[in-house]
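User: Predict structure, ligand tryptophanyl-5'AMP.
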Amino acid sequence: METIVSGIRPTGNLHLGNHFGAIRNFLKLQEDNDCYFFIADYHSLTTHPKPQDLHGNVKRVLVHYLAAGLDPDKATLYVQSQLPETAELYLLLNMNAYLGELQRVASFKEKARQQPDNINVGLLTYPTLMTADVIIHRATKVPVGKDQQQHLEMARNFVNRFNRMYEVDFFPEPFAYNFGEDLIKIPGLDGSTKMGKSEGEANAIYFVEDPKVIRKKIMRAVTDSGPTEMNQTKPQYIENLFNLLRVMSSPDTVEYFDDQYNKCEIRYGDLKKQLAEDVIKFVTPYREKIEALWNDEAYLQKVVKQGTEKAHASASKTMNELRKIIGFLPF
Ligand code: TYM
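Assistant: Predicted complex:
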């Protein structure tokens, strides 16, 4: 049994990328591990959400977690800001994190490009907060998508530096985890290599979306006039569609369209129709559960209360030991 931690930012509805990069693995891991899955609302403040939107977005992630099948009796589900020990650990880690290394993180550079008028220190120290989330429970495995890999490398640097500095073996090294396979990156529908919320509406497929909208989005996905040579290498945007087909459809379906492509006989319309139907089949029960859970406030409250208590027990144990290591001694 290992300790597992992961989280998702509450910035809107969840999409297929969130599921296949993260939640699918949460479901498998909850069966025989000590799992902590939280909603990263502190992290979401880097983009300055409106106060009136924040709670709904937190609830949205919680409801997706439950609809996907996370079991609050197996995994600990909580909201990051209700575990303020995380913020204390973040402060302590920041004393030992260097400006240069934080400035070199790819996600920081990307965000700084995306929001040049709001390059706040929260963006810069995003990896130290993420490290705090993970090591507050002294976790070793972190199920995440490919885009989070560098953050886990930073987490190992911070952990090793801390242990060295205080001459302890207190925090274990955490690793991004996908059952020994490469980390997942689900592509977008607009030809970009990543499905994501910040890439525009046409890029991502959300679980709560109406089948009609899903069909329309997929039918509009970027393609071309088709291959002209046998066994031609697929351009990125076509490879993206095949990658989506690989996660959503049966191996026979993938093989069929691959074959058609290689023979220059592919009809992208047929591929897209098949993909749309398979996506709809997958998201429909999920969407129905989300709708059913949405108004069950009493149940949601119970889940969060139970999760917060368990998370608090684990976090306060870490912090009590940590304070001693640092030299904060009680009078
Ligand atoms: P966030 O909210 O951007 O994404 C949540 C999870 O979904 C994965 N993901 C994807 N995986 C594959 N393909 C995609 N297109 C795709 N889009 C998103 C992400 O990799 C992630 O696993 N920093 C984190 C939240 C966080 C966290 C943590 C995670 C905060 N503290 C501690 C793990 C441990 C984030 O912004 O994820």
